[in-house]
Request: fold
Amino acid sequence: MVKVRDSRAAPAATYVARPTPERNPGTALDLDWVRDLRVNRSAVERRADTLVRRRTVKRDWQAAWLLRAVTCMDLTTLASDDTPGRVRRLCAKARHPVRRDLLAALGLGTADLRVAAVCVYHAFVETAVEALRGTDLPVAAVSTGFPAGLGPFPQRVAEIRASVAAGAREIDIVITRAHVLTGHWEALYDEVRAFREACGDAHLKTILGTGELGTLRNVARASAVCLMAGADFIKTSTGKEAVNATLPVGLVMARMIRAYRERTNVAVGFKPAGGIRTARQALDWLLLMKDELGDAWLGPARFRLGASSLLTDIERQLEHAVTGRYSAAHRHGMG
Reply:
């Protein structure tokens, strides 16, 4: 039997209760805070490097951590050749992300294990909502001219409203990177604030596009502005940039979340996305959350992993934990 829970070593395996992420009301824009932010790149990179070297998950507890990673996934398809059939298969996998025989072997045969959300383009929101009917799984829609975010502003706002009207309960927006690169913080604040208003009751996940922001200081400043504007999550990347989620960027963003909570007593979520393909990478991100933000960020209410192929590797690792061998990767795909 593989051990799957330990309060000291692994996140508790709770799969049925799905707490609603708290909303971030935002604050007035504090330009002094934004302008005073500094980031020591070499120190950040050393800290990120030592995290993965110093902290590891003991083999006996890896299954529990990997199952927790599954519950934090925004299972995603954002391909140019997406079809309704592909989206329906994705939703079926979201309902039952890990084979039942593996869950049974891990002592979790009756667990209601599901991912955190299904993320699709606006055109497939209604398809996903229908495929997930009868569950509490939310549909997240990428919006505001994803991935570039350069369409006319009224059109981007209208896209958010259309996705919410179609049933999306979460909206992943992209900011105008030029506002960050030129230091137009008021414009960035006003943009995100308008996007949040358009979301209504839907949760707002704000994509910074960190690989295109130039410096870690810009990442910190953009994070601060989006948090003050009311983002419920801040997210690293669209997954379409040349450089996507990296641990140094994640460290900076996590510390901005911590600083914002110290200023406002509001806890905001974090979502790394793009390039996270292996179970080992998922564990690294969970360890970063535990170290920097604490156990409250080890669940879907405050932590998400943007993932498409990641689930395949996690299921293979779970199979290895149970049987001692790996099967072909295609056995775990969506078909």
